[in-house]
Structure formats: C-alpha cells, structure tokens
C-alpha cells in the first residue's frame, strides 16, 4: 500500500477520492477488465473508496478485515452491487468485528470465517483461505 511501510508517500493518497483514482489507474495500467479485488487490512483505504465509486468495474470483492470500513455509511454500502466475500479469522478481535459490522450492509455479500486464524488469516490458515476464495471465485463464473 503506497505510503505505508517502506513505500514512498503518494500525494494523491491523502484523500479517499485520490486513493480511489490511484487504484483505478493501477488497474487501467495493468489492463485489468473486471478483476476480483482482494483487500486485506491497510489496503482497505484504497479498495473501499474504489468499491463505492466504481464497484461496477469489479467482478468481485474480497475484504479481509480491511481498515476504513467505518468511514462510509450503511446507505453507501447498500448501493454497491458487487458480489463480495467478507473473509476473516475468528481470532482477529480487533478489525474483523468492526469490518463485518459495516460490510454486512453490502447487499450481495457472504461471510467466511477461518477458525483458528488471526488478522493475517491467509498466512495462518492458507489452505482454508484458498478453499474459501476459490469457492467464491467459482460462484462468479
């Protein structure tokens, strides 16, 4: 995620609109047509504004306890028609419950909880994570 860790700060990353535009440019430069966007943790600052503004450009959305879910209203989430798999580890007692509380307003969502997994559930339980992800992707076809 630009501006986090060792990555250089990105001026346009200062606003939700700028982060959405940045992600849109990345997808455009990569030539991606209706990708499935997987958004763990800090990437939520980019993925959520993009989802709310351009969800129709995505085939699916997989939030994994992303940050920033409380920055948007239930009404904003209800307007999104992108199929969504809300995925998290049951040992993530910080971000996961808050993310679920907000993201459950997405009308086309389902939930997958990985037992015994923490915040980075894809690292803690990779087989369970891939099973849930592949099941969701198959449904999109």
From TrEMBL:
Keywords: Cytoplasm
Cell compartments where the protein resides: Cytoplasm
Main location, first listed in the record: cytoplasm
Keyword Cytoplasm: yes
Record's GO cellular component terms: cytoplasm
Protein name, as recorded: ABHEA protein
